[in-house]
Amino acid sequence: MRVLPILTLLLAAHALTVSAYDITDMGAARDWCDSTMTHRVEGIWEFPEDETRVLIRKQTGSTAQYVITVVESPDTRLTPGEEIGHMQTSPDPTKFEMTLYRTKLRGIAGNPGKCLAVLDEKNDALLVQGRKMKFSLASRWFLPSFWRAVRISVKNPLDALPQGMVRIYPSATRRQPDYL
């Protein structure tokens, strides 16, 4: 009698696995975008640093979580159709909690890293902001008195360059109406 619930659970898990991997190339991703009423963050996005293209779409059966699936990548470690992360909505409709897997061991993604993703619809961008840690040591206790007056500071303008993704398809025109 317990076989039926277990079998049902296994079939449901298999259905979720198959639906996560059914889009395995750019053409299928474009077809999905064209045939679906996309929400503001759904679509095909590109990481400009490594030219990896991903499809972001709502997770099946969820209203607040999105799945990030590889569509195209020059990195041979990433397989098209592979799920590499998730995004969770927040009370602010332009901010999401993004989780990206950082390692892959025996074909299984692991070591999830969390960051903030901010949707910039004006520029068709998804800006990613990770944690930053700052460490300083008061060297005046270790150096002679002359070196206490000398301060060296380096500012790299590339540090201010935003990190994230650029939307490549569809354009930012809203296709899903917002209901009050």
Structural topology:
Blueprint: H1 3-20, H2 26-35, E1 43-47, E2 52-58, E3 65-72, E4 83-89, E5 95-105, E6 108-120, E7 125-129, H3 145-148, E8 163-169
Antiparallel strand pairs: 1-2, 1-8, 2-3, 3-4, 4-5, 5-6, 6-7, 7-8
Could you describe the 3D structure shown?
18% of the residues lie in helices and 35% in strands. The chain has 180 residues and is α+β, with helices and mostly antiparallel strands. It has one domain. It has an 8-stranded antiparallel barrel. It is globular, with a radius of gyration of 22 Å.
Q: What is the C-alpha radius of gyration, as a whole number of Å?
A: 22 Å
Number of individual domains: 1
Shape: globular
- Report the average pLDDT across residues: 80
Strand portion:
35-45%
> How far apart are the first and last residues' alpha carbons, in Å?
46 Å
Number of strands: 8
Helical content band: 10-25%
Unreliable stretches (pLDDT < 50, length at least 5) are 1-21
Order of helices and strands: HHEEEEEEEHE
Count of alpha and pi helical runs: 3
Largest sheet: 8 strands, antiparallel, barrel
The spatial strand order of the largest sheet comes to 1-2-3-4-5-6-7-8
Q: Structural class of the secondary structure composition?
A: alpha+beta
Provide a quick synopsis of the model.
The protein has 180 residues and is α+β, with helices and mostly antiparallel strands. The chain has helices at residues 3-20, 26-35, 145-148; strands spanning 43-47, 52-58, 65-72, 83-89, 95-105, 108-120, 125-129, 163-169.
Which terms would index this structure?
single chain; eight-stranded antiparallel barrel; alpha+beta; disordered N terminus; 180 residues
